UniProtKB/TrEMBL annotation:
Residue ranges constituting the Sucrose synthase first GT-B domain according to the UniProt record: 266-339, 362-591
Organism: Musa troglodytarum (fe'i banana)
Molecular function (Gene Ontology), one example: sucrose synthase activity
Record function comment: Sucrose-cleaving enzyme that provides UDP-glucose and fructose for various metabolic pathways.
PANTHER family in UniProt: PTHR45839, SUCROSE SYNTHASE 1 (PTHR45839:SF7)
Enzyme class: transferase
GO term, biological process aspect, one: sucrose metabolic process
Pfam families found in the cross-reference section: Glycos_transf_1, GT-B_Sucrose_synth, SUS_EPBD, SUS_N
Family the UniProt entry places it in: Belongs to the glycosyltransferase 1 family. Plant sucrose synthase subfamily.
UniProt entry keywords in alphabetical sequence: Glycosyltransferase, Transferase
Gene3D superfamilies, alphabetized: 1.20.120.1230, 3.10.450.330, Glycogen Phosphorylase B
Protein name according to UniProt: Sucrose synthase
Ranges for domain Glycosyl transferase family: 598-760
Domain annotation Sucrose synthase N-terminal: ranges: 10-121
Length: 859
């Protein structure tokens, strides 16, 4: 048998150069079309469109699957400065290469990140005369730190970190000292936990563990810790190992196993049992944060329900763990927000996500206590946003702490946009630190930031207090507004992108760990760039150039998906829990013959199953696309009715996009003569009733359809599946990860309406032939939810991550000092300078999209 040999993978430059040698005419045909468009930027779809247009169908078939086509399909953008074309090539998520083609000379060259960005800056600066531009490069600080190399490992940082820690830190007795020191460092308000100073070496610890094990095996398993506390103190142990003999033995066996034969799973389990988190601070400064009457206010939406659901689950998990650890400690969670007031009595729901965003926050079940820190808004008439401290209803020790923005002139009494908060955040951080010290009488154990402003404040607090930090971005503005980096100067006076992107870079590099809802949030998909990935390399011309901003392979990234509140969203088959008192209202919504401001059009045959959708009425949510695919398919219309919940029939929207979609919806209903088969219901604000609405649709043996052109996560998908409703959702974005096609639901391509309609037809025809098929998909969806998408799983994972990354922070503290110093300099010399020059501007809607142009350039 022939011997195996290793072959080097060719770079994009080498592959494209080979194509140039073999097929120069084909390459010239395409790149000439790029150059002929003149100086500018071409996006991926434009590159592929020009490739398609350059050749006949037969010629394209010959090139199909070849190197040239593969390279172009991997290109995310091209910068054209005739006769040069520079390409940003992304062979796979998280991996980038840059090349430049001279079309006149037919020469291919390789570019570094810095060279590519410098070339890109010519779109704005022309030929720059400056010989020096500040370049940010975080890569050298992470060169010695472990990280995976496979794209499939992205978002599984804690698993990789556990493998690294278990292999490096338990090699010999000397390498075990960091763990010993970590266990000895635990205390709460002066009370020592885990180990006392009698145990000074790993050998002494191992010996004491054996003696403790022998003693515990001699007494009943349910003996409470208090009965052998004195004996354990003599051995060198303190409280925190467990509440009973059985629990203490389980914890000690994990540590003994680690000391003898370490493995990643055991390390994670052990670190998850250590008492580390008693006080949690959650930061979300911008917008209006209260438990009622705020949804629909500016910058106020789904994050409120997300955080309130999050803290309820987190408090429950903290209380459970503290009890199991045998401790008599009452934890606290503080939600820190801004104290604010505004005279608004009518809540607009036009731009909110149904499910999380369009509902009143539910009351919370009793639990531990957390603090959510927000702004104190002194002029917020009609809300609780002017109250300093507000108990989260239904919890034991979770509170909303509101701290106002202020400057040298005093307290800011009005609402300001999230784009204008930057000048206030440093002073705000100092004020928050003082308030936390007063409320907690202790240092927080975990700080969680939300959004760009919350994550900056979390970073400054964590830096000041030496606390473990968690980052939740939710949405990064840089990816929401394409090319807002290179054209930042056009918008900075009003939207301060320079401050925001600088804050984002600072926070994502400062934090100990980052959690996201999906893989795509980190690293996109095969064809799309992830939100964090877009910060790998970019430029703010004239300000600074980022050559290595964040590495999506960094083990700080972890996918921890939220769930739906199971007190509201539960399976339709749980008959005893069903909210049947809502049924008359739901039946009126769906089936009454009256048309009014709440519902338009009627359903003639109420015995047919219903396909149901609920979302904002905008272009991306694509509800008009659903109506069109339904209207075009006669068989689908014969099988099922269609119900959509969106918009507000009783109010004239001021949103241009919503008005256009509303007009289109009426036009499609008329064009396809859908009255009698469609019901269009206004946005529904009662979250609890909406849960029963999902279940009522399930009673009809219907389905939920989420047809968005792109969906970052897909909470309504989770809500529907949690209620047992078979779900069809977009293949673009988070739902592609939530649903396993054909098992727990179905993926549909919103750009291929006829094919999507046929998938729906196929499902309902099969259900007609075999009614158990509907039950099979319903159960498959529920199984998927229980496996991955519940708040209990979320809180368990978050607490475990806090333990693992708290340990990692301890053992790598000295090695991270260089990074901290670099970040301090970046903050002091760049962020502060930007903030000092920014003045709050009037708050108006931001309008930057892929179709916008600036001086003739695509923005």
């Amino acid at each position: 048998m022939a011997g195996r040999t290793l072959t080097r993978v060719l770079s994009v430059k080498e592959r494209l150069g080979g194509t140039l040698s073999a097929s120069p005419n084909e390459l010239l045909a395409v790149f000439s079309r790029y150059v002929n468009q003149g100086k500018g930027m071409l996006q991926r779809h434009q590159l592929l469109a020009e490739f398609e247009a350059a050749f006949s169908e037969d010629e394209r078939e010959k090139l199909k699957g070849g190197v040239f086509e593969d390279v172009l399909r991997a290109a995310q953008e091209a910068i054209v400065v005739p006769p040069l074309v520079a390409l940003a090539i992304r062979p796979r998520p998280g991996v980038w290469e840059y090349v430049q083609v001279n079309v006149n000379e037919l020469v291919v060259g390789e570019l570094s990140e810095s060279e590519y960005l410098q070339f890109k800056e010519k779109l704005v600066n022309g030929e720059s005369k400056s010989n020096f531009v500040l370049e940010l490069d975080f890569e050298p600080f992470n060169a010695s730190f472990p990280r995976p190399s496979l794209s499939k490992s992205i978002g599984n940082g804690v698993q990789f970190l556990n493998r690294h820690l278990s292999s490096k830190l338990f090699v010999d007795k000397e390498s075990m000292y960091p763990l010993l020191e970590f266990l000895r460092a635990h205390s709460y308000k002066g009370t020592v936990m885990m180990l006392n100073d009698k145990l000074q070496s790993p050998r002494a610890l191992q010996s004491a563990l054996r003696k403790a094990e022998q003693y515990l095996l001699s007494i009943p398993a349910d003996t409470p810790y208090s009965e052998f506390n004195n004996r354990f103190q003599e051995l060198g142990f303190e409280k925190g190992w467990g509440d009973t003999v059985q629990r203490v033995l389980e914890t000690m066996h994990l540590l003994l196993d680690l000391l003898e034969a370490p493995d990643p799973s055991t390390l994670e389990k052990f670190l998850g049992t250590i008492p580390m988190v008693f006080n949690v601070v959650i930061l979300s400064p911008h917008g209006y944060f209260a438990q009622a009457n705020v949804l629909g206010y500016p910058d106020t939406g789904g994050q409120i329900v997300y955080i309130l659901d999050q803290v309820r689950a987190l408090e429950n998990e903290m209380l459970l763990r503290i009890k199991q650890q045998g401790l008599d400690i009452t934890p606290r969670i503080l939600i820190v927000i801004t104290k604010l007031q505004l005279l608004l009595s009518i809540i607009s729901v036009t731009n909110l996500e149904f499910g999380y965003a369009n509902q009143k926050a539910l009351l919370m079940n009793p639990s531990s206590s957390l603090f959510q820190v927000t702004r104190l808004l002194p002029d917020a008439v009609g809300t609780t946003c002017s109250e300093r401290l507000e108990q989260v209803e239904g919890t034991q020790r979770t509170s909303i702490l509101r701290v106002p923005f202020r400057n040298e002139k005093g307290i800011l009494r009005k609402w300001i946009s999230r784009f204008e908060v930057w000048p206030y955040l440093e002073t705000y951080t100092e004020d928050v630190a003082k308030e936390l010290a007063e409320e907690l009488q202790a240092t927080p154990d975990l700080i969680i930031g939300n959004y760009s402003d919350g994550n900056l404040v979390a970073s400054l607090l964590a830096h000041k207090l030496g606390v473990t930090q968690c980052t939740i971005a939710h949405a990064l503005e840089k990816t929401k507004y394409p090319n807002s980096d290179i054209y930042w100067k056009k918008f900075d006076d009003q939207y301060h992108f320079s401050c925001q992107f600088t804050a984002d870079l600072f926070a994502m590099n400062h934090t100990d760990f980052i959690i996201t809802s999906t893989f795509q949030e980190i690293a996109g998909s095969k064809d799309t760039v992830g939100q964090y990935e877009s910060h790998t390399a970019f430029t703010l011309p004239g300000l600074y150039r980022v050559v290595h901003g964040i590495n999506v392979f960094d083990p700080k990234f972890n996918i921890v998906s939220p769930g739906a509140d199971m007190s509201v969203y539960f399976p339709h088959v749980e008959v005893d829990k069903r909210l049947t008192h809502f049924h008359p209202e739901i039946e009126e919504l769906l089936f009454s013959s009256v048309e009014n401001d709440e519902h338009k059009f009627v359903l003639n045959d109420r015995n047919k199953p219903i396909i149901f959708s609920m979302a904002r009425l905008d272009r991306v949510k694509n509800l008009t696309g659903l109506v069109e695919l339904y209207g075009r398919n006669a068989r689908l219309r014969e099988l099922v009715n269609l119900v959509v919940v969106a918009g507000d029939h009783g109010k004239e929207s001021k949103d241009i996009e919503e008005l256009a979609e509303r007009k289109k919806m009426f036009s499609l209903i008329e064009e396809y003569n859908l009255n009698g088969q469609i019901r269009w219901i206004s946005a529904q604000m009662d979250r609890v009733r909406n849960g029963e609405l999902y279940r009522y649709i399930a009673d009809t043996k219907g389905a939920f359809v989420q047809p968005a052109l792109y969906e970052a996560f897909g909470l309504t998908v989770v809500e529907a599946m949690t209620c047992g409703l078979p779900t069809f959702a977009t293949a673009y974005g988070g739902p592609a990860e939530i649903i396993v096609h054909g098992v727990s639901g179905f993926h549909i391509d919103p750009y291929q309406k006829d094919k999507a309609a046929e998938i729906l037809v196929g499902f309902f025809e099969k259900c007609k032939e075999d009614p158990t098929h509907w039950d099979k998909i319903s159960q498959g969806g529920l199984q998927r939810i229980y496996e991955k998408y519940t708040w209990k799983l979320y809180s368990e994972r978050l607490m475990t991550l806090a333990g693992v990354y708290g340990f990692w922070k301890h053992v790598s503290n000295l090695e991270r000092r260089e990074t901290r110093r670099y970040l301090e300099m970046f903050y002091a010399l760049k962020y502060r300078t930007l903030v000092s020059s920014s003045q709050p501007a009037a708050s108006v809607p931001l309008a930057v999209d892929a179709e916008s142009t600036v001086d003739g350039q695509n923005v």
